[in-house]
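Researcher: Last one for today. Full complex below.
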Amino acid sequence: MALERKLVLDDNDVYCPIRATLALLGQKWVPHIIHELMGGKRRFNELAHNIGGCNSRTLRDRLKNLESLDIVSRNIVATMPPWVEYDLTAKGRDLGVALASLERWGQAYMDEPCV
Amino acid sequence: MALERKLVLDDNDVYCPIRATLALLGQKWVPHIIHELMGGKRRFNELAHNIGGCNSRTLRDRLKNLESLDIVSRNIVATMPPWVEYDLTAKGRDLGVALASLERWGQAYMDEPCV
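Model: Here's the assembly. Have a good evening.
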């Protein structure tokens, strides 16, 4: 799993689910992937195109990681030729809803650069 | 302002409000402070005590930063002796609501260490 230990442990080295959630969303492209999949199933190339800027290798790694966390599902569609579709699981969709409320907050209140 | 530039810019060096929001919440103790203030106004020592583990200097820095972002308000209560109370602004309370939905997700789904 690609969450850094130090990011998910609190000061007493106790695992913290909220730190883990923030660490996951802090990984580059993870919010983009979840946001994009909130719009529905996507093939790999569609995802890559719609997200833009994320190289294929990184995107593949992120999707694998999200799959291992049961946030994203990877389904092979048995057409000829077959293709692979990515979708959010119920868990992933719940995360997407929570993320959307953060997005709304960010857009409403952090719209001006504060650095 | 204490948000790192590289954390709030996207790949094209464009400021991204969602990355900025996640960077803010990724700062140690910021989620704790917001969570605690969702329970109501707190004096500095109450905050320090209830949060636990955060040293006074860090807590003071975080509060200053949150004040500069208009997320936390600092009010002097004119008693004798006077004291200082911290509270969430409307903007801070909105962030608290969004954070709470992430917290619920983390507790429901990331409760088992995945590292």
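Residues 5-98 of chain B form a domain with the Arc Repressor Mutant, subunit A fold (CATH 1.10.10.10). The interface with chain A takes residues 1, 3-5, 8, 10-12, 15, 17-18, 20-26, 31, 53, 69, 91, 94-95, 97-99, 101-111, 113-115 of chain B (CB under 8 Å).
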